[in-house]
Amino acid sequence: MAAPTNIVVISAGLGVPSSSRLLADQLSAATENAARQAGLTPVVTTFELRDLAVDIANNFVTGYAAPNLAEAIAAVERADALIAVTPVFSSSYSGLFKSFFDVVDPRALEGIPVLLGATGGSARHSLVIDFAMRPLFSYLRARIVATGVFAAPTDWGQGEGVRPLNGGLSARVERAAVELVRELADREDAAPTAAQRLPKVATRPEDKSFEELLADLTGAV
Question: Is the distance from CB of 37 to CB of 197 less than 8 angstroms?
Fold first, then answer.
């Protein structure tokens, strides 16, 4: 039997219920489904940072992680893949989200596949994934999947007169989940047939490297 694949989900939502948690749950469910299709044995663990806020603050002052916080930190540091979702505050990730990753060993995420998600009150905030979250996880040397998922009120059936982003939330969630599992399959040296079971994901021009774009133009291999 294959060893379990540990997928850790971090949700920094503050409300109850939280749109960030709703998005995190959709991403984790899609990832778990894609992982099973790929022949992996996913084990998903979700942490709500709202429940750890006081422990995170105390950790900065005392240098001591209370048991619940220590459990979350250890889970992230042992993870085979990470799904990280934050609400948008002041055009960036939340302070709680950043504070949690400040208490995680900065070397822990090196080479770990990470799927990024965010929620906000307007589609205009969708760039927070590329301009705030990606730089943070690039600094931590994580392997960030190409598709980040932002959910605006229109994606939950709220708001008027605005079309959902990029063809709908479900499509973006499924695409990002497949990309994360492909990274997992590569990282865990899964059998070639495992990756072949996943749906084909078309490569967008913005996902290609400069060398790939140049090859397309010149006809080079």
Answer: yes
**Alpha-carbon separation of residue 110 from 45, 46, 130, 140 (angstroms):** 20, 20, 19, 6
Give yes or no for a contact between 96 and 49, defined as CB atoms under 8 angstroms apart: yes
The model's pLDDT over 112-150, given as tens digits with 9 standing for 90+, comes to 999 999 999 877 788 999 999 999 999 999 999 999 999
216 backbone dihedrals φ, ψ, rounded to 5° = -65, -40
Only one residue has tokens 């960036």, namely 92
Alpha carbon dihedral 160, 164, 165, 167, in 10-degree steps, equals -160
Q: Which domains does the chain have, with CATH numbers?
A: 5-218 (3.40.50.360)
**CA 46/CA 149 separation, integer angstroms:** 18
pTM for the whole structure:
0.82
Q: In which element (H, E) is residue 5 found?
A: strand 5-11
pLDDT in tens, 49-97: 999 999 999 999 999 999 999 999 999 999 999 999 999 998 899 999 9
Backbone dihedral region for residue 11 (phi beyond 0: left; psi -120 to 50: alpha; all else: beta): beta
Determine the longest span between alpha carbons in the chain, in angstroms: 59
Query: Do 115 and 31 contact (CB within 8 A), yes or no?
Result: yes
